[in-house]
Amino acid sequence: MSNLQPSHNFLHAFCIKPSYRFETQHPNEQVILVLRAHPITLLPWIFNSLVLLIFLVFINFLFLKFLTPSQTIFANFFGLAFIFAYIWFNFLSWFFNLGIITNERIIDIDFHAVIYKEVTETQLTKVEDVTAKSSGFFASIFNFGNVFVQTAGTEVNIEFINIPKPSEVTKIINELVS
Description:
By secondary structure, the chain is of the alpha+beta class. The chain has 4 helices and 8 strands, in the order E-E-H-H-E-E-E-E-H-E-E-H.
């Protein structure tokens, strides 16, 4: 693992040896990888947000004759608040759902609906199998997919969904395990 050089990619979705620290990190534990969903997976909700904004502008022209100015302002405020809340929650979901791979363990942090956090971790010594799966046209072109880490015994398996370079992540985990 000493041959890995620190690097970050677009929107920090695939960070090798970042200078990050996390709350349960041990004193001599080094962060090897920090993973988020590939930035291309953000496009559906960004597209939906733009469509909603265009729809709001269209609705303004359509109902301009039927509403008073104060009703129009209230409707626009409500519509914009809804759209920006949609954008904010989707961004937070992407930003805070991460995978952390250290020289001692693998950690999967999932935030659900902003108020519920699920942290799954396993020691590298308990890793049985690591599988990378990438399917579909966009996944092939943009090199993203899923990595599944199977653990020994009754421990919960770890999944990294839509991450960049899944085969490289699998290779790094396998090198750390052996």
